[in-house]
Write a structure and sequence with these properties.
β10 and β11 form a beta hairpin. Strands 2, 4, 5, 7, 8 and 9 form a six-stranded mixed sheet that branches. A three-stranded antiparallel sheet has the order 1-3-6. It has four helices and 13 strands. 17% of the residues lie in helices and 20% in strands.
């Protein structure tokens, strides 16, 4: 593949990261991951290589030194390109962000013109891969699952309500399936989006109505008794079904459960491959030696 990520300029944690790259014929649609010393963040999906640039809203990324990785959307182990290191300053730290342009201006004046031509091609890509009402761009490969209410839409795909999403969380402001723990990251405004609007009352009512059903599993499946981070109890319905729709942060019995393809030890939790040894996890490859009961209701 000919895809090569350029090293982005420094930015503040609440700012926007300008990402550019070069490409060659045959490069696939890809996702962008922000890789730090201890954490990895998914910041963009469904990026079309021929656009040559995109802007990523950082939300509240912790300050530090990062690299940017381009990975294939259906196999995050397949890294297409890695940028050089760059800094993300604390939120509101305007001076570091302002100091970055001179560094970018130091190279020959030909560099800005190289980025300018793609601007003409950017509008078509923006229509297909971004959300006019804000939030991260939708992964276009999930179009077939929008609005069918079957609960099979993956994280990053568009949704009209929580019933579309395997994670049970349709996040605003534009309706995108999200892990509940990441529902306010990268410009998202929280779970509860419903077909063009996210009224405060319905959004609050949905968790309240779901609380009784989730309470029983939370005591059993919501913790990781053998170590590692706690499970997200909203993924209890996907444990052990082998359909590959379990979202990151929820319990798994093997990699066949997880949309990411990584079931991490020591207790079996779906994880991004880049974060498989973080927060007490011991790496992908966990396989349960026995059937794990998710809640007493499943025994009735």
């Amino acid at each position: 593949m000919g895809l090569t990520l350029n090293t982005p300029a420094a930015s503040a944690a609440d700012g926007t990261l300008a990402v550019t790259w070069t490409t060659a014929a045959g490069d696939p649609t890809f996702a962008l991951e922000l890789v730090g010393a201890t954490e990895t963040f998914d910041v963009a999906t469904g990026v079309v290589p021929t656009t040559l640039s995109t802007n990523v809203g950082l939300g509240q990324i912790p300050p530090g030194t990062y690299t940017l990785q381009a990975v294939t959307g259906d196999n995050i182990d397949n890294v297409l390109s890695t940028s050089g290191s760059f800094a993300i300053a604390a939120a509101g730290a305007a001076p570091p962000a302002a100091a970055a342009p001179p560094a970018a201006a130091a190279p020959p004046a030909a560099a800005p013109p190289a980025a300018a031509p793609p601007a003409a091609a950017a509008p078509p890509a923006a229509v297909a891969t971004s959300n006019a009402n804000g939030g991260p761009p939708f992964d276009p490969s999930g179009t077939k699952n929008v609005g069918n209410g079957n609960g099979i839409q993956f994280i990053g795909g568009q949704c009209l309500a929580a019933a579309d999403c395997a994670s049970g969380c349709c996040a605003g402001p534009s309706g995108i399936c999200s892990g509940p723990g990441a529902a306010t990251q990268a410009g998202k405004t929280g779970c509860g989006f419903v077909n063009g609007a996210a009224p405060a009352a319905p959004a609050a009512a949905a968790p309240a109505a779901a609380a009784p059903a989730a309470a029983a599993p939370a005591a059993v499946a919501g913790t990781a008794s053998a170590g590692g981070p706690p499970f997200d109890p909203s993924g209890a319905k996907n444990v052990g079904n082998g359909k590959g729709i379990q979202f990151i942060g929820a319990q798994c019995l093997s990699a066949a459960d997880c949309a990411s393809g990584c079931c991490a030890g020591p207790s079996g939790i779906c994880s991004g491959v880049g974060a498989q040894t973080q927060a007490g996890k011991t790496g992908c490859g966990f396989v349960s030696k026995r059937f794990i009961t998710r809640s007493r209701s499943f025994l009735l």
